[in-house]
Amino acid sequence: MKSHSPYPLYFVLAALALYVTFFIIPSLSGIAYSFTDWSSYSDEVEFIGLDNYRTILSPDENYLSFIGNTLLFTFWTIIIKTVFGLALALLLNEGVRRFVNGYRVLIYLPVILPTLVVALIFRSILDPAAGLLNSFLRGIGLDALALPWLIDPTIALYSVIGVDSWKGIGYIMVILLAGLQTIPKDLYEAAAIDGAGAWAKFRHITLPMLMPALMIVTVLNVLYGLRVFDIVYALTNGGPGYATEVLSTEIFKAFSKGQFGLGTAISSILFLILVVTGYLVIRVMERQTDRE
Amino acid sequence: MPKSLRAPAAHLAAFLASLIMLLPVYLITINALKSSPEASSMSVDLPSELHFENFLIAIEKGKLIGSFLNSLLYATSATVLATLVSAMAAFVMSRHRTRLNRFFYLFLIMGIALPINFFTLTTMMQVTHLINTKIGVIILYAALQVPFSVFLIYGFVDTIPRELDEAAILDGCRPPQLFFLVILPLLKPVLVTAGILNFLNIWNDFMIPLYYLNSSANWPMTLAVYNFFGQYQSSWNLVSADILLTIIPVIIIYLLGQRFIIAGMTSGSVKG
């Protein structure tokens, strides 16, 4: 039997070969190249130690603010998507009894649209003069709120966060809704007999039972937020100035400018942030789950 | 709130949320039919007269037929390739849980979290002579879809009884026959889910062609739309028509396959 195993190892090889060739080897050699002056202008690649990292971490350069923007984007999109996603999931699970699937199909729709297309549509909606949002705000008398959403450097990042949240809420809602549907109904009936109110039921039954789904949602959002590219590139391309520049858009700029050594260093920092943040998020959520 | 008002209030809230989510697609649809001056503010008003010629102009000027065929080629080929190699790997790793196979599984799904290093990947594409080629983009897309596909299919393999394998082997099946004739048909639900998700991911992607395709003849629809937008920014009716034609295939697949999509999105996250 051993020589004729029905589960031969060569079945794994094609997937493994694709993955190692186009994922692992580039990632690992990228770390090595981050210590060099590799560029598109010269055939020679020289070892320059930590110089690229010194440039990135120098307060005289803008790279630290790109890291900051990436973290802000990740943090706020998680908060907004989770709060609204949870509210909509509760609404569909408990509030409405009919048309649940219809609502779910519509609310999930933005998730499957190409990010690029969403960004282009919102460039029109957020146009300061003719855009739909500002026309609407002026129409209901809120002229003071009709802001230059993508043009004012102090709010541009939050406009991008808003658009991305709009696109992603349905995704979070669907996962949390599936989580809610696994909670046994008799838990709520027992709590009602004990005289628990709506808030107590939410706090002591829904939230703890939903923890695994919330944990997955947070991890997925962290992974997405730290790597975000399309929505920023197509909405603002990092501008105005560097107000919305995130790590992935800066990596693309380094790529276009031929600064390969510096770019691999930024990529390696992103890699490191992803690993550390992912690990921390899982630890914190696990502790939270234990406490419940 | 009195009980009698609770359901209508909930429906109102859910309806408003649905409306907000639908709004951009509605905007694109009605503005695609307007004249250029009428569409300049991208308002919610209905068009005063219907300009169906916008679609013909967008198709011609936006080179949409070529980019549609490119998108179709990339998404279909890479989806088939990724789903097939992932299913083969997931089947063996799930059935035969040796220490090596467990390591391979964790190693593969680690890719869900890893960022791509585009610089060294460029070198890899050059070394393998895949850069700026259609086949290169297909192979690259397939490779990028492998981690999540393996994760999705691996969980499903467990639901197929092992007795089937044993019976097939006793009947004289070789491993490829066992997999392709017995197992693969039973994996159909998860293959459809993985296939739809992979297809949509690739169809919607914009980053790989931006980095690795410099010849416009090879561009998929997303990149063609972006380029069209750059040229016709002031004609929102044409941009809308171009966008609508790009997202129609996505919306059709979504409406037909939404049960499978949602199954895939929630699997593993809820049942553990």
TrEMBL record, chain A:
Keyword Cell membrane part of the UniProt annotation: yes
Annotated protein name in UniProt: Sugar ABC transporter permease
Transmembrane segments: 7-33, 71-93, 105-126, 155-178, 207-226, 260-282
Family affiliation: Belongs to the binding-protein-dependent transport system permease family.
Natural source organism: Pleomorphomonas diazotrophica
Pfam families associated with the record: BPD_transp_1
Alphabetically ordered keywords of this record: Cell membrane, Membrane, Transmembrane, Transmembrane helix, Transport
Domain of life: Bacteria
Domain ABC transmembrane type-1 as annotated: residue spans: 67-281
Membrane association type: Multi-pass membrane protein
Annotated compartments: Cell membrane
Gene Ontology biological-process annotations: transmembrane transport
Presence of keyword Ribonucleoprotein: no
Primary subcellular site in the record, as a coarse category: membrane
Automatic annotation (TrEMBL), chain B:
InterPro entries: BP-dep_ABC_trans_perm (IPR050901), MetI-like (IPR000515), MetI-like_sf (IPR035906)
GO biological process, one term: transmembrane transport
Pfam families: BPD_transp_1
ABC transmembrane type-1 domain mapped to chain residues: 68-257
Main location: membrane
UniProt keyword annotation of Acetylation present: no
Topology term for the membrane: Multi-pass membrane protein
Listed SUPFAM superfamilies: MetI-like
Database matches in PROSITE patterns: ABC_TM1
GO CC annotation, single: plasma membrane
Homology family: Belongs to the binding-protein-dependent transport system permease family.
Protein name per its UniProtKB record: ABC transporter permease
Native species: Pleomorphomonas diazotrophica
Organism lineage string: Bacteria, Pseudomonadati, Pseudomonadota, Alphaproteobacteria, Hyphomicrobiales
